[in-house]
Amino acid sequence: MAEIVLKDVTKRFGAHLALDKVSMTVPDGSFVVLLGPTGAGKTTTLRMVSGLDHPDSGEVYIGGQPMRGLTPAQRNVAMVFQQYSLYPHLTVRQNLAFPLKSPLLKTPPAEIERKVNAIAEILQISHKLDNKATALSGGEMQRVSIGRALVRNPQIYLMDEPLSSLDAKLRADLRIELKSIQANSGATLLYVTHDQTEAMTMATHVGVLHHGRLVQFGSPREIYENPVSTYAATRLGQPRINFLPADIFPSAPRGAVTIGLRPEHIAQGLGEDSFVKRVEHLGDQTRLHLSFRNHDLITVTGAHTELRNGDIVKIQPDRPLYFDADGMRLT
Ligand SMILES: Nc1ncnc2c1ncn2[C@@H]1O[C@H](COP(=O)(O)OP(=O)(O)OP(=O)(O)O)[C@@H](O)[C@H]1O
Ligand SMILES: [Mg+2]
Q: What mean pLDDT comes out for the span 35-49?
């Protein structure tokens, strides 16, 4: 069992409250993505679970056991850091083999070789196995650090923006690999990213952090469709949700100050006139940049639309989300 539970985890750095009573259950075998802007407390959360740092108050449990006082090795977690942490004087092969050479593991050399080669293959780095770690590009270093976590079989993987410096193609490949490695091994994965697609496609659950507080936890779909606040609503969705004054359309409920419309939740052809500012053909779909009563909106339409800059198109809300003066969702 490698369920991770955080209970009222609080962490201060001097006067700064980095984590404020964070409580969260990461189910065994789940893939949990933490979302939040810079400084929200994502890395700090991972460090609390890894044992690299310790809560001021509250407790972390792994598999039901309190982790207080246990080292990262005792917790059996593998972490991929935001900054690559390779041994510069070692080759890629030696870096990848390093975690397996721990005297505790007693891995036979043939087995080490087999694992290192298999991981290098997955990460598309086999041709660099004999390079020194310093003789690599940023994206290659990042893959070697992912590889060092993957060669082991820990109960828990903690990954901090592991794919951020890779190109789009490699990122798409590794997204699928990581997801299948995690699904096949049954390991629990706590993962930090700013990438919408990574969050939507890999996560079984998403935790939204805001100034060190966990403001929502649920499936990506739940958070996308039922965000608790304007803040949570903006964390998922690309292009992002549109916000307008609630009374700009008829029939806003009492107390509504803001209406939130996802790009695909703006119906076209009925309702009120809007002005087409820009048409972006993306291949599989078209983005429309609209101006509606001096507010900018982004919506999507079919790949083969005839609409052009300067056209007028009627719009009306379809599945609107309403928020109060504090940005909290009205249900
Ligand atoms: N060792 C430290 N000493 C002082 N302040 C720290 C330390 N580590 C983190 N902080 C502060 O705690 C807050 C949360 O930091 P954290 O690294 O968890 O953010 P993050 O969500 O990972 O952000 P990013 O997306 O930029 O990586 C920030 O305001 C940061 O400045
Ligand atoms: Mg961070």
A: 96
The pLDDT score that the predictor gives to residue 55 is: 98
Q: CA angle, 268 as apex, 267 and 269 as ends, to 5°? A: 130
Q: Which residue CA neighbors atom 11 of ligand 1 most closely? A: 18
Residue 288: what are its φ and ψ, rounded to 5°?
A: -110, 125
Q: Is 181 left (phi over 0), alpha (psi -120 to 50) or beta?
A: alpha
Count of all residues that appear for the chain in the document:
331
Is 0.85 topped by the overall pTM? Answer: yes
Ligand 1, atom 9, lies closest to the CA of 44
Q: How many CA atoms lie within 13 A of 239 on its CB side?
A: 21
Taking the C-alpha atoms of residue 6 and residue 49, their distance in angstroms, rounded to an integer, is 8
| Segment (H or E) for 199 | helix 196-202
- DSSP state at residue 81: -
* Ligand 1 near 16 CB (within 6 A): yes
- Cβ–ligand 1 distance for 42 under 6 Å, the answer yes
pLDDT value, residue 1: 63
pLDDT at 301: 94
Q: Hey, what domains does the chain have and what are their CATH numbers?
A: 4-234 (3.40.50.300), 239-330 (2.40.50.140)
